[in-house]
Amino acid sequence: MALAQKSFLGQRPAAFAPAKGARVQRGSLQVVSGLKEVRDRIASVKNTMKITEAMKLVAAAKVRRAQEAVVNGRPFTENLIKVLYGVNQRLRVEDVDSPLCEVRPVKSVLLVVLTGDRGLCGGYNNFIIKKTEARYRELVGMGLNVNLVLVGNKGKQYFSRRPQYNVVKSFSLGATPTTREAQAVADEIFADFVSGEADKVELVYTKFVSLINSVPTVQTLLPLTPTGELCDLDGNCVDAADDEIFKLTTQDGQLKVEREKVTIETPELDPSLIFEQDPVQILDALLPLYMNSCLLRSLQEALASELAARMNAMNSATDNAKELKKVLLVKFNKQRQAKITQEISEIVSGANATN
Predict the structure, then answer these.
(1) What single string gives the DSSP state of each residue in 78-142?
(2) Has residue 292 got a pLDDT over 70?
(3) Most buried residue among 82, 111, 224, 336 by CB atoms closer than 10 A?
């Protein structure tokens, strides 16, 4: 009976065990326990499936919260961009004496890396770290000095264990990025750029495209242009008046993300408007606010990408748990049937022997 149970469960008896060094065929689940152990494992898989399903729903709720944060911050951004354009139109000059617009020969580059604070989100953190390492090697190959500012605990844990990277400062991303977190990072960036320690600041973050697609992106943050354009490494510049909003919706019972492109109207300021201060000073005060706004938006995009990756990872874990439960149930039922069949045959054999 014990021999039959072992062979049925996938465990070979000692007499039929494979020789050392022999390859065991994969693809089938090896269950090497009795009925009680299999039943306990099925219950454990069910509990794990409930946990992963709950984590998926929590991540979806947080994506909606990140979406609301982007929408709530739009009025300030719209008014800031309108004033920024109006001041530039009033100035009508190309050379603006602002420390954030100063273009100088690049000898040192500051990389601002946005990663997550937690794991269980698939390859999200790994993708952004690999992108950072590739950009770091590219800049070092050009003979430039590269420093890192890390936002997120995962990036901090990875790069702090590797002494070849010069980490200037690190921050935590937090559950919901606010202007306070963005201001702390912006102050560090502003201080390094204005002091001349960094001639260029690049932002490495994950652009949120959809629930199943996020693109690691390297974007030039400083120096800024007077009109507030941001450019990537390929020279593709995004006008400050062009923006996108992501919205988490449902379609046919499935979660879906829609991106809506919004163009902000930038009319000229009233000609009768008189500036008490020099317009250059006003522009000098507006550009740091705009940089903070761009940084906050990048933090929100990175958080949304992390949550979407966590949703996908937990969805895959739930599906795997369901498949594992089915396999275990089949094994359990077969084992139970074999045991019942053997007990019936023993009873019949005993009855025949007595007759």
Answers:
(1) HHHHHHHHHHHHHH--S----GGG-----SEEEEEEE--SS--STTHHHHHHHHHHHHHHHHHHT
(2) yes
(3) 224
What are the strands of the beta sheet with 145-151, ordered from one edge? Answer: 167-171, 145-151, 108-114, 200-210, 213-222, 230-232, 237-238
Active-site residue, from 101, 121, 237, 294: 121
Kindly report the average pLDDT of the chain as a whole number: 75
Give the residue from 260, 112, 272 showing the smallest Cα distance to 188. 112
DSSP state letters, 274-343: --SS-HHHHHHHHHHHHHHHHHHHHHHHHHHHHHHHHHHHHHHHHHHHHHHHHHHHHHHHHHHHHHHHHH
Residue 156's Cβ-count burial label (10 Å; 0-12, 13-18, 19+) is buried
| CA separation for the pair 293, 282 (Å, rounded) | 17
Residue 121 known to be catalytic = yes
Residue located via tokens 């690691």: 216
CA distances from residue 182 to 114, 189, 292, 333 in whole angstroms, order as listed: 12, 11, 6, 57
Beta strand 230-232 pairing with 237-238:
antiparallel
Predicted confidence (pLDDT) per residue in 330-344, tens digit: 888 888 888 888 888
Span 218-231, pLDDT tens digits: 888 888 765 545 54
In the prediction, which pLDDT does 256 show?
A: 55
